[in-house]
Write a sequence for this structure.
């Protein structure tokens, strides 16, 4: 059959194409994978057909199918109907290998979490990790800590990591009190003056803030928050860059508004996280409690707990992601890196921000490999890397000063 | 190409003869049709899958007593329907306050359109889809459902509707064209992006056929 004249509607009508989408027939998968490789100009039409097919078939994606089938096979094995030998792979090219890949990744969870536990225990000793003989990490970088700079309304800058605990300053009737890694704004008198402060964390820094209304904000590394020292007007508005986790005090009269470039998150009182780093592809607002409304260029999305609004910088659309692992999203505020299906590039970006190192990647890294596990943020860079290496031997790491050099291992 | 019904019949014969591979094939051949049927009644897809698996295992255990059948799908559907409804009733008994379960009894089966819309949580796509579906005639919807949701082949659809295979094909083709136009509009559909992270990675990988 000449498939080259095919449009999306022709593809979707084809039985073997449907089987390719669902990945439930080995021959079909083999045929279409090769065909698409050879006809790359048809990729867009194929993608359209595939998406439409998944909508019309009741959102039974190949992933759902593989999951459900795995349950079936497992059940058959437990019932003694199947043994290892009788099960043949269903869709060998792409799909079956990926399932295998995920299975190995699942094993990494164990590896990673075990090492992570060790690291959590060890972290207080603060020593450079024992380095393995081969591919040794020659250097080390200490983890980040509670560091930030506060810029007052008059432009005065206060370095918070060196400032002593206690009352730092008073502006327009509002006291600023520092306690370890936390800054609190306390209204003294009935103030009517609106003054703006900005708190900025560097790479390798984090800070906690209690705003004048009692709302708490955790600021991750390389982030900033601009906020009024007291909330006078009809709304409580703050501006964020980077990443912040918010626990907003409920006030039905005054909604709380977080502005992140062209994205606006409006709340009454709730817990949520915003990740808006410039080097991340998407701005993600994740809701843990309550309700928030995310708006961008006139498009709005109302989030329920466990949902995430994701928007691409270059588009006006906001997409909803359901059933987000919220622990993973806010792990940073609890002092953890929590990787769930994380690809190496995302992990390295996080490391760059927290350890304040520059990442030098020699050659492209395999972004499809997934990492799972928990590492304490209190761990030195060399130790954190050791955990990554226990998960995958495909990548070599080297620390030189404040540079982390990574390279894919060519295994052929 | 061989008719689905013929393929199913042969697999069934092998199944009765005790071929474990046929058991796996039956699961694949009827997966979409049966899962989707069950999901109209039971919210939780794991439960539906459970029923499906339970049914196949029971059939396997008494395979030597099973008859040869012409239409395997219809045969499976009869016992699957019973399993699903039993499960729904058991659920309803366990949680009487969950009255929605009782609504989903066979007389109150929800429509295909409502089912699809209920599953979709991307507000923009949902609106588009809702609008697109209204552009289809009753007939088109019925055939699209049979083809993609019930996973029947054109011969089966033609027979059930009393039309020729060619007509069945044309009706569905036109419906798909309409849907594509309505959904696509200016840009690509973006729902795949919204599926779980892993799903996106997996489908991308399989499309590009990356070797590890």
């Amino acid at each position: 059959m000449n498939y080259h004249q095919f449009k999306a509607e022709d593809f979707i009508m084809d039985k073997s194409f449907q089987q390719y989408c669902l990945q439930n027939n080995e021959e079909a998968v083999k045929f279409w994978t090769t065909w698409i490789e050879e006809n790359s100009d048809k990729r867009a039409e194929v993608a359209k057909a595939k998406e439409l097919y998944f909508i019309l078939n009741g959102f039974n994606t190949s992933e759902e199918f593989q999951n459900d089938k795995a349950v079936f096979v497992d059940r058959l094995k437990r019932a003694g109907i199947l043994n290892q030998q009788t099960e043949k792979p269903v869709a060998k090219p792409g799909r079956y290998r990926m399932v295998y890949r995920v299975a190995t990744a699942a094993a990494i969870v164990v590896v990673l979490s075990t090492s992570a536990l060790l690291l959590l225990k060890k972290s207080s000793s603060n020593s450079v990790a024992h380095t393995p003989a081969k591919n040794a990490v020659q250097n080390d970088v200490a983890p980040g800590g509670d560091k930030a700079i506060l810029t007052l309304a008059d432009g005065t800058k206060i370095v918070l990591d060196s400032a002593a605990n206690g009352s730092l300053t008073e502006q327009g009737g509002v006291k600023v009190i520092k306690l370890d890694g936390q800054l609190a704004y306390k209204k003294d008198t009935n103030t009517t003056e609106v003054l703006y402060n900005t708190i900025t964390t560097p790479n390798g820094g984090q800070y906690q803030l209690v705003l004048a209304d009692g709302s708490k904000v955790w600021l991750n590394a390389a982030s900033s928050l601009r906020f009024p020292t007291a909330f006078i007007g009809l709304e409580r508005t703050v501006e964020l860059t980077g990443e912040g986790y918010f626990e907003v005090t409920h006030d039905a009269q005054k909604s709380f508004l977080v502005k992140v470039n062209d994205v606006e998150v409006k709340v009454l009182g709730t817990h949520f996280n915003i990740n808006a780093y410039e080097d991340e592809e998407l701005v993600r607002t994740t809701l843990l409690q309550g309700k928030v409304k995310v708006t961008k260029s006139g498009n709005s999305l109302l989030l329920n707990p466990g949902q995430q609004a994701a928007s691409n910088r270059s588009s006006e659309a906001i997409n909803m992601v359901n059933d987000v692992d919220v622990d993973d999203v806010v792990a940073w505020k609890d002092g953890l890196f929590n990787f769930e299906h994380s690809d190496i590039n995302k992990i390295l970006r996080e490391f760059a921000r927290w350890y304040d190192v520059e990442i030098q990647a020699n050659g492209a890294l395999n972004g499809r490999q997934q990492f799972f596990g928990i590492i304490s943020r209190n761990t030195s860079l060399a130790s954190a890397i050791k955990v990554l290496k226990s998960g995958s031997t495909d990548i070599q790491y080297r620390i030189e000063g404040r540079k982390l050099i990574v390279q894919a291992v060519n295994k052929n | 190409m061989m008719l689905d019904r013929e393929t199913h019949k042969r697999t069934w014969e092998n199944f009765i003869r005790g071929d474990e591979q046929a058991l796996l094939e039956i699961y694949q051949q009827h997966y979409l049709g049966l899962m989707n049927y069950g999901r109209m009644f039971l919210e939780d897809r794991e439960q539906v899958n459970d029923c499906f698996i339970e049914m196949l295992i029971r059939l396997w255990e008494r395979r030597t007593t099973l008859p040869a059948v012409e239409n395997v799908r219809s045969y499976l559907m009869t016992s699957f329907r019973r399993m699903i409804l039993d499960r729904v009733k058991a659920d309803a008994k366990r949680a009487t306050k969950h009255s929605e379960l009782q609504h989903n009894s066979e007389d109150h089966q929800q429509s295909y359109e409502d089912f699809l819309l209920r599953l979709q949580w991307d507000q923009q796509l949902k609106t588009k889809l809702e609008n697109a579906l209204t552009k289809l005639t009753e007939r088109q919807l019925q055939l699209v459902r049979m083809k993609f949701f019930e996973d029947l082949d054109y011969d089966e659809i033609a027979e059930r509707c009393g039309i020729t295979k060619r007509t069945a094909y044309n009706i569905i083709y036109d419906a798909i064209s309409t849907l594509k136009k309505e959904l696509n509009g200016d840009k690509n559909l973006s729902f795949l992006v919204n599926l779980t992270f892993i799903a996106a990675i997996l489908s991308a990988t399989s499309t590009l056929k990356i070797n590890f």
Summary: Confidence is low (pLDDT under 50) at residues 86-137 of chain A. Chain A touches chain B through 72 residues (CB under 8 Å). The longest strand of chain A covers residues 236-247. The CA atoms of residues 171 and 195 of chain A lie 8 Å apart.
